[in-house]
Each structure stands twice: as structure tokens, then as C-alpha cells.
Amino acid sequence: MTVDQDIRDELLATMPSLRAFAIALTGNIDHADDLVQDTILRAWSHFDQFRPSTNLQAWLFTILRNQLRSNYRKRKREVEDPNASLAQKMAVLPEQSARLDWADVRVAVAKLPHKQREALLLVGAEGFSYDETAWICGVAIGTVKSRVSRARRRLTELLVLDDNDEFGPDRRLQAACVSGLCA
To answer: What is the pTM of this model?
Structure first.
């Protein structure tokens, strides 16, 4: 695309006024300079839309104003986080591995003998005490403790866990969290 030398000169002559307007609107010289640069780039890439019989300066100021509004709307949805401290605190564990882990646990729990499964679910999932579970099942508290212990041991075998393993993030994710990537 060829741009007439007169239009190019007028565009360059408008830049100080654009910059002053941008500084007045933003109150920040760096932000204003970025805004003027974005305006010139946008004008240059859309120069085919400019009608030579119209006011170039007004067209550029309109682009600048619209660019400022677009940036403002975009920034309204963003949170300033210069050193990424907020982003680190908002780390979320990947959902897909948790779903797979939960599916494995459900399958393993289903393989437990009924009485062990019942005791484990009452104590572990429902939060009942051993005394309350014993009363619900109509057995002695020692029996409940034994059933829960056997159920946990069997789950460890079925899920191929070491005694030191815990349910939760895998070792790679734990290492990332320890190194400060998660908060």
C-alpha cells in the first residue's frame, strides 16, 4: 500500500498532539506512549478505511480514544500482579488426575468385603466416630477398628500404594509445589 507523502507528513505532525491527549487521558507517560504507538499501528494497518477527504487528525484521535476504551475494558477484567504472587497462590491441581484417582478409589472400595466397606465408609467418608459406627453396625468398637484397619490395608494393596504414599497430588506436582511453583 502506498501512502501519499502529504498524508504521511500530516500523520507525523499529529503525533505530539496524540501523545499529549494520551498523557492527559491516562496520567501515565509510558502508558500514553504505548497507546499512541498502538494507535499509529492500527491506523497504518487500516489506512484503506481512511477517506482522504476527511480529517486525518480527527480519525487518529478517534482510533486513540477507542483503543483506550478497549484497553480499559480489558484491564477491568485483569488483576495487576507484577511479581506473580497472586497467580502462585491461585494454583489449582489438575482436575483430570483427581478424577482418575477417584475412579480408582471407587473401584477398589467396591472390591472390599461388605462389612469392611461399611465400616470404612461410615468412619472415613461420613465422619462418624468409632463409637457411633459400632452403635450403627451393632458390633463392638474393637470390631469396627479392626474392620477399618483391614479395609485401609486392603485399599493400599488394591491401589498399589506404599505405606508412605498419600492420596493427593502425584510426586511431580508435589515437587513443583515444594520448589515454590504452587502456593
So the answer is: 0.43
